[in-house]
Amino acid sequence: MKKYVFILNPKAGKGQAMTLVPYIQELFENPVILESKYLGHAIELAQQNAGPNTIIYSLGGDGTLNEIVHGIMLSKYSQDTIVGILPCGSGNDFIKSITSVKDPKRLLTQYREGNRRTIDVGILNGRHFINIASVGFDAEVVYNAKKYKRIPMFNAELAYLISVLATIAKLKAYPVNVTIDGQKIDQEEVLLISLANAKYYGGGMKPSPRAQFDDGYLDFCVIKKIKKLMVPFLLPKYIRGTHENIKQVHLYHGKKMTISSIDSLPINIDGEIIWSDRLDISIKEKALTILVV
């Protein structure tokens, strides 16, 4: 008998996840509905509820999904538990790599057909991620945007835009040493480094447009130090995934990367920010099963 677990973030997407509860209760017999009450709580809930014949649905944004995936990967049932993704947050980027359907109710109905896909999972300093992690400029943008979101008159889009402008105004480069699959990459200072398992992040940006979440590799985008005046030229291309031919942009394909720096670096993992002066990144192949449409 299948067990259906729904882990929802009541604060994500202005409470969108909560509106789905009556629909879930109509559609499923004895669903387990759990609320994530604090940062990291979804990790605990997913780890506790992972198991054979279990589908855990994520009702939130990419941050909630990341916690659920990390929790499942920490459990002894990571190979037995299936993940369903219902986009209910302000940032819903991973789902774009699966389908163009955005309506959670429609997705929930289509997921019941049982189509599945086994995908790779990235690991950064012990933290699992299925979408994209990054270091540098864009991580600072996410970090600053969280501060602007606290201002009542700012919605998520406006907070992000203002954060981009503020981060450009204080543009900095990061001195780092980088190796990919044991080979040292000649770097000086970088604007950012993205580590992509899937294609989209930051509201639809495509740092590595050829990234595939089930090919056994991560796709790395390294952008070297640039002048402020060049950022408005680079950003639109970065968003569209047409930045490959810019001189400061270097794209790589590999299984492992290490990044080290004298200073602590801002790191974005599926929308959550951490800081560290060393990153060890790797890929775990065919590690997680997800529902697809």
Task: Report the sheet with the most strands, covering strand number, pairing sense and barrel closure.
Answer: 15 strands, mixed
- Share of helical residues: 25-40%
Proper CATH architecture of the largest domain: Sandwich
Look at the helices and sheets and give the structural class: alpha+beta
Overall outline:
globular
CATH topology of the largest domain: Tumour Suppressor Smad4
Number of beta-strand segments: 15
Low-confidence stretches: none
What is the CATH domain class of the largest domain?
Answer: Mainly Beta
State which percent range the strand residues make up: 35-45%
Q: Average pLDDT, to the nearest integer? A: 91
Give me the Rg, rounded: 19 Å
The quaternary structure here is: single chain
N-to-C SSE string, H for helix and E for strand = EHHEHEHEHEEEHHEEEEEHEEE
Distance between the termini: 22 Å
Instruction: Count every helix, treating DSSP H or I runs of 4 or more residues as helices.
Output: 8
